[in-house]
Predict the 3D structure of the following.
Amino acid sequence: DTGVSQDPRHKITKRGQNVTFRCDPISEHNRLYWYRQTLGQGPEFLTYFQNEAQLEKSRLLSDRFSAERPKGSFSTLEIQRTEQGDSAMYLCASSFPIFDEQFFGPGTRLTVL
Amino acid sequence: EDQVTQSPEALRLQEGESSSLNCSYTVSGLRGLFWYRQDPGKGPEFLFTLYSAGEEKEKERLKATLTKKESFLHITAPKPEDSATYLCAVQDSTGGFKTIFGAGTRLFVKA
């Protein structure tokens, strides 16, 4: 499969727990993006990487959120001390160096109880 | 601050009834404007990229146009399978590759 993959597809957790999501981009795509999407809204930008460098992080993102992309391949998004307001679909996308179109994964749906 | 506003929020059409979706944007400088389609429970799927005012792109029943302040997605003779949420997004030329999405227009096409 040559598409963007995300794991897990669904996550249910209790408030206060930490969660980590993984994204595997399309190979040779050097840019990787993380978004959060709630019902009826468009994707909200969280952060993006160019290779292994995290170039921008949304000011809306609290310190409880952190993302990494070691070696410029897969990426992880961690949410510490989850809150009910973190419940959303977390989307990952990647893009090829000379093209701007982003290819999205299927998303990870997080439910915080 | 970069902003994207889409209208209408929802649009109901009969099969074959052409219409247009609007995307108004505010950026310091436009690097690119994007249209995506999103089906329920799935990630967005890329449709078009527009870079400068006057540019137009077409794909099957869809045509995207761009002015200095807004973009339109024209749907000609839609079919029920065109039912989806259509998302507009922008990248500011001063902001790297940060991408700002609008809330989308939910399109329903009835047979």
Observations:
- The interface with chain B takes residues 4, 31, 33, 35, 40-45, 48, 50, 55-56, 91, 93, 95, 100-107 of chain A (CB under 8 Å).
